[in-house]
Amino acid sequence: MKTFCNQEHQDQAVEAIKSLVAIPSVCNEDANDGTPFGADIQHALEHSLELCKQLGLETYIDPEGYYGYADYGEGEEMVGVIGHVDVVPAGDLRLWNSGPFEPVVKDGKLYGRGSQDDKGPTIAALYALKAVIDSGAVFNRKIRFIFATDEETLWRGMAQYTKKERIPELGFVPDSEFPLVFGEKGLLQLHINGTGSNTLNLSCGDAFNVVPGGAVYEGSRASELKSALDELKFEAKIDGQKVEVSGKSVHASLADQGINAIVRLAMGLLKIGEDHPMLHFLAEAVGLDGYGKNIFNGVLEDDVSGKMTVNAGMLNIDTNSSQLSVDIRIPVKISKDDVVAQITTVAKEYGLTYEEFDYVASSYVSLDAEPSITLLNVYQDLTGDTKNKPITSGGATLARTMPNFVAFGMVFPGESKTEHQANEFMVIKDMAKAMEIYAHAIYRLCCNQK
User: Fold this and answer.
1) Which CATH architecture does the domain made up of 186-360 adopt?
2) CA angle, 67 as apex, 61 and 132 as ends, to 5°?
3) pLDDT band, residue 353 (cuts 50/70/90)
4) Alpha-carbon span 262 to 202, nearest angstrom
């Protein structure tokens, strides 16, 4: 079988990824700098397109800065590859062994925020395209790399793209895992709102879609709280009037595999007599199981996409109000309306109200249709792996923004998923392996058509 990617392609990809990871492209809507999501995301978008231009692609950037794309090849039909240039916040810098935006290669791994989600995979796919171009292959389908800008928040960049631009006939998103993700759960993000507090001032968590790995209390009852947390056997540190509760941060779609520090903090505060309805809701309804069993009277699941996950991602309480931000990944066959009705009812029992923030419907693409057939064949042909089967996922990727798109890599079965975590990394040998898979996928989809 032909090999497309050589060492030069791989080395160039690593350097390009490092240059992109070095840009702290976290969403900043309050920048007031003429960009929709802040200058850093704009910089990352422009830098990505410049890399494409250097590789010989024709580029376009939305005048308002919501998206950009780069094209190569000819043909009436178009294949799309969608990546995103934004990242989640770095979180607690003390947990990083090196700067999150200071990319470091160590022990065969490239560390930095975005190395796995999604700058590394996007650039790997881009340089795989370069390898196919360098092989002299003739493209009879056009390929378009689409760069999104706010995938980690509200997907407004892709909403603008789909409103204004051509939709490719089929394609993939290198923002998940191999061998193939052909279905994705619905994504519901919501606020639970309540009254304020005269005794609590809390601001915990960074994002809806991250299980909080830490939560901080500052106040006169710090010693009492630390003792209560010790009794609960919850890890915590105290420094004067400040207590920091520890958890385990993972992506919200894997909430059952994380440890929610906000819920732990709520349980500790209740134990010392802080009597606030939001704390009760967190400790008694949301709980630590990652499924919201006490809200939904058990675990909701289906035979296509598995179990529903529930993550309390952010908590804010001050004298005026309280707000809990929740991320729910709804299985393909479960009704969103039923989920909303149940959580609204339970919230009301605590004197709290439900407010929808965002919803993205589930997606499903048959394994008997393109691009699933070609992509799965490519993966199996190059790896020899027929044991690991295509899956559905709780992750929300941009594959669901267009028909006939699936998520394809770049994490291999059994390898670490470190997105949204401290010390996020990409394994370089896996990147090289993925590049060859992407190159063959691009070749078969774009260059092998009669």
Assistant:
1) 2-Layer Sandwich (3.30)
2) 75
3) very high
4) 10
Residue 445: the pLDDT is 97
For residues 266 and 247, what is the distance between their CA atoms, to the nearest angstrom?
13
Four-way CATH pick for 7-184+363-446: 3.40.50.800, 3.30.310.50, 3.30.110.30, 3.40.630.10: 3.40.630.10
Taking the mean position of all CA atoms in its chain, how far away is CA 126?
A: 20
- Please tell me the distance from the alpha carbon of residue 156 to that of residue 36, in angstroms, as a whole number: 9
Query: Which residues partner with 207 through β-bridges?
Result: none
CA pair distance 235, 386, nearest whole angstrom: 42
Report residue 1's pLDDT band, with 50, 70 and 90 as the boundaries.
confident
Residues whose CB falls within 8 Å of the CB of residue 221, separated by 6 or more in sequence, listed in order: 272, 274
Q: How far apart are CA 167 and CA 171, in angstroms?
A: 10
| Predicted local confidence at residue 405, as pLDDT | 96
Measured distance CA(115)–CA(101) in Å, rounded: 10
Give the count of alpha carbons within 13 A of 13, CB side only. Answer: 32
Of 163, 12, 8, 143, residue with least CA distance to 82: 143
Residue 356 in tokens: 């929808």
What are the extents of the domains in the chain? 7-184+363-446, 186-360
In 3D space, the residue among 326, 324, 305 whose CA is nearest the CA of residue 315 turns out to be 324
Q: What angle do CA 257, 258, 259 make, to 5 degrees?
A: 135
Strands 236-239, 214-218: parallel, antiparallel or unpaired by DSSP?
A: unpaired
Distance, in Å, from the CA atom of 326 to the CA atom of 358, rounded to the nearest integer, reads: 11
For the segment 114-136, what is each residue's pLDDT rounded down to a tens digit?
Answer: 999 999 999 999 999 999 999 99
* Rounded distance between C-alpha atoms, residue 72 and residue 442, angstroms: 11
Which residue type, as a one-letter code, is found at position 408? F
Query: Residue type at 252?
Result: A
* Alpha carbon distance 159, 78 (integer Å): 19
Mean pLDDT (whole number) for 24-31: 93
Q: What is the distance, to the nearest Å, from the Cα of residue 406 to the centroid of all Cα atoms in its chain?
A: 15
Query: From the CB of residue 89, how many other CB atoms can be counted at a distance below 10 Å?
Result: 15
| The pLDDT of residue 272 is above 90 | yes
